Amino acid sequence: MNTIRPSPSFQVEPGFRPEHRKSVAHGYWRAFSRKLRYPLGPQAKAIDFLERVMNPSHAISAVSQDGAFLGVAGFKTPDSAFVAGDYGDLLATYEWVSAALRGLLIRVLDRDCTPGTLLMDGISSSLTRAGKALARYCCTRSKSAPDQCSF
């Protein structure tokens, strides 16, 4: 796997490793559960849904030198998003009435992404020192190109 930016304590990689999918979903839920508790909760169902719909082609992740997952930064483009589910994915996790209501709530939270724009879809990191360094790095990098990233 290509390393985007090496560091003594972690490396940043395109996407996320298949073995980290569950950790990515847990981290995303931990970071955004207050915002997503109504459209996606309870926690177990939300994490199942997130695991199903996370798109590694719209993310970068940080991995420690020993291969442990440290964090992820997801983004949205006009073509797709880091969290890119549809009604069928909601139906696979929730019963049909619940899926319909949740779809409406999610639509309210969704933001369109115009051509030529890279929209941050979420940053989450472990609570370790390296995870916090990743979060600082991602925020710093996105602020350095405000015309290409938006929170």
Explain what this protein looks like in three dimensions.
The protein has five helices and five strands. It has 151 residues and is of the alpha+beta class. The chain has a five-stranded antiparallel sheet, with helices on both faces. The longest helix is centred in the first third of the chain and has 20 residues, at 21-40. The chain is globular, with a radius of gyration of 15 Å. Residues 144-151 have low confidence and may be disordered.
SSE run = EEHHEEHHEH
Mean pLDDT over the residues: 84
Q: Percent of residues in helical segments?
A: 40-55%
Strand content: 15-25%
Distance between the termini: 28 Å
Low-confidence blocks of residues: 144-151
Number of strands: 5
- The largest sheet has its strands arranged as 1-2-3-4-5
Continuous helix count? 5
Shape, please?
globular
Rg value: 15 Å
- The structure class reads alpha+beta
The largest sheet, given as strand count, sense and whether it forms a barrel, is:
5 strands, antiparallel
